[in-house]
Amino acid sequence: MGEKKKIKVLEAIRQGKVGGGESHILDLVKHINKDRFQPVVLSFTDGQMMTELKNIGIDNFIIPSEKAFDFSKWQKVKALMEQEQIDLVHIHGTRATSNIYWAAKNLNLPVIYTIHGWSFHNDQSPLVKKGRVMFEKWITTKTNCNISVSVSNQKTGKAKMPNFKSVVIHNGIDLKKFDPNSNERKNLRAELNIAHDAIVVCFIGRMTQQKDPLGLISAFKQLVETNPKAILLMVGDGELKEEAIQLANEYGIERSIVFENFRSDIPDILYSADIYCLPSLWEGFPIGLLEAMAMGKPVVATKVDGSVEIIENGKNGILVAPQKKQELIEAINNLIRDKDSRKKLGTAARQTIINEFDVCTMTKKIEDVYTKVLSKN
């Protein structure tokens, strides 16, 4: 008897930098049942995710493109699928879908689409929003299965697209990697030139409008006035990075903010912090928030899709309205001043992840979707 052929799954995403969707792919390919499935990853840009994939021995490819609907790349995507003898295509995010769907369908391959967050938002011009809703409506009816990463993500889809169908699979966290009690943990304060007695508020994510880093800096200006030992640690890159640095300088608080580029030692960054803050204007299902909670950190997040499904206000974290500076200041201020509250919320946060958001559960549910789609196909 020959060895049973493994099912080759193409995991495809827009970029190779590390963000929510990219962390999700890394966790998925690390934990997937390698006896049954052989993952292959395709990205349209290079970045830390691709380096990490090489390190763990997962086949990965880059077809360079920064554009949606980049027709010039479609044949290359198709050729890659043929070369790698792909059995199933799993696309993460809208941009990647626009450049992958044609090739998959041309080869009659089943397609699964994970919506990590919709491409349409309330702050877009009516024309842009309408166009994006139309595309999402079209693509979600053409796939073999849609996965929503949160119930609110699914509800938003149904509100805009009455015939929208999906299964909800929450993102999960690797509890071994994000373990505050691990002997491997390093305190990075000395390396980052942060005083051992500072209260560190940590932001980790892309410096984009979605995450509202400028709003956080504006709030921090007021926080520092009454809490001179407070430090804001901002880890990430993005189009607002330079503006964020400029704003800190304008406010004269550049010594109270530490800017770091994307890093791969996120568990140690979180270990070195006291409070985690995610002031997003919208979210799918924020992995960064789950990671901070897994590390036992008290979290302050905005009342947006995804985050509200993870945090029960006052029990395992604090929720504030988006773009309400005073609410954000008050929430962080209370945690800075109350060590017991930080400890209590942090303990409850980790327990939430253990109970509900384990990466092994997430992976098993995704494997079940793969099996179901392939058996129908």
Annotated CATH architecture of the largest domain: 3-Layer(aba) Sandwich
Q: Would you tell me the overall average pLDDT?
A: 95
What is the count of β-strands? 13
Strand content: 15-25%
What is the count of distinct domains? Answer: 2
CATH topology name of the largest domain: Rossmann fold
State the distance separating the first and last CA atoms: 26 Å
Rg to the nearest angstrom?
A: 21 Å
Low-confidence stretches: none
Main pleated sheet: 7 strands, parallel
Residue share in helix:
40-55%
- The helix-strand sequence is EHEHEHEHEHEHEEHEHEHEHEHEHHH
Spatial order of strands in the largest sheet: 3-2-1-4-5-6-7
CATH class of the largest domain: Alpha Beta
Helical region count? Answer: 14
Overall structural class, as computed from helix and strand content, comes to alpha/beta
Shape: globular
Name the quaternary structure: single chain
CATH superfamily of the largest domain: Glycogen Phosphorylase B
